[in-house]
Specification:
By secondary structure, this protein is an all-alpha fold. About 75% of the residues lie in helices and about 5% in strands. Helix 1 crosses helix 3, helix 3 runs antiparallel to helix 4 and helix 4 packs antiparallel against helix 6. The termini are far apart.
Length: about 160
């Protein structure tokens, strides 16, 4: 049985080992930046803990769980733009460090990197993984819309 620290270390190593298209370095610099400034890695760690309840061999789940972290950070990049936040985790936000266009584009590519991670789930689980992911992603968008609506309502 793995503990939280072990699982966080597995996720951190998986994030470091993500591969990027080298012909568009400027696209991926903000991605590497936002993923390098830390965080609790709560989502992938919880996913791996759940997996570990049923199996001690969690290797097949590490990269798909990493996709959760990549997607979460994608939502943070876009949320920071929408909220005009200058700082995230005591570091400049991506749009503050680069610019809004770069942040949008780099955030967008993170969604596809997350999909690539999910595609590495075992074939028997893949459609369930994408169903759960798509439902959660839609709920994130709904939440953002509600946030926008609330801000307008109080102004």
């Amino acid at each position: 049985m793995f503990n939280q620290s072990d699982l966080k270390n597995l996720v951190d190593k998986s994030i470091i080992n993500l591969s990027y298209n080298t012909e568009a370095g400027k696209l991926y610099d903000p991605v590497k930046y936002i993923l390098s400034i830390g965080g609790k890695r709560l989502r992938p760690v919880l996913a791996l803990m759940a997996c570990n309840l049923f199996n001690d061999k969690i290797d097949e789940a590490v990269i798909p769980a990493t996709g959760l972290e990549v997607f979460h950070n994608f939502t943070l990049v876009h949320d920071d733009i929408m909220d005009q936040a200058p700082v995230r985790r005591n570091f400049p936000t991506v749009h503050s460090k680069w610019n809004i266009n770069q942040a949008v584009l780099s955030g967008d590519v993170m969604a596809f990197i997350a999909n690539d991670c999910f595609l590495q789930a075992p074939p028997g689980c893949m459609s369930k993984v994408f169903r759960v992911f798509n439902k959660a992603a839609i709920e994130v968008c709904v939440g953002q819309q509600l946030d926008i609506d609330f801000e307008k309502a109080i102004l």
